[in-house]
Amino acid sequence: MDISSYNQQMQKSIAYLEKEFQGLQVWRATTGLVENINVDTDYGTIKMNAIALITISDNSTVKVEPRDKWNAKHIANAIYEANLWVWVDNQGSFLFVRIPALTQERRDQIAKQVKAMWEESKANARKIRQDAMNTTKAELSSKTISEDQNRANEWQIEDLTKKTNSKIDELVKWKVDEIMKI
Known about the structure:
Blueprint: H1 4-22, E1 38-41, E2 44-47, H2 48-51, E3 52-58, E4 61-66, H3 72-81, E5 87-90, E6 95-98, H4 104-141, H5 147-180
Antiparallel strand pairs: 1-2, 3-4, 4-6, 5-6
């Protein structure tokens, strides 16, 4: 049994969590806040970063410059519908997305979102672990591996799961601390 495929799945789970964290509104502007928003255009639904240039103007402002200025209203609507708690200033050929200072109530809401993402990531790691355990048990029952190899596989799977969960916990703690700092 090759553990590397399960290791890749665990790493993808961590990468997904990191990407989701980029889309959270914290105390400073990031392009990740808006770049993965789906925009309904005349051509269909397209990711924001595919139809606009996204840059940071200052600590609290993201500038979104549509490649086609006619998409500015679609982009503004998509940002409003994403419920990011930001202000959108449509200048016609570009938009300013202004990030307000976080209130304690909003910080608490974002922290709850982070904890929900944490639960989802932990559940995904458990699912990957269970798949790996089922695979090694199936190999044992079909006599393709020995009992010693089965125990070694189970140990590697447990070790991989512990490391992944530790990394997830570390990321979540860091993000919650970042959100709560004033």
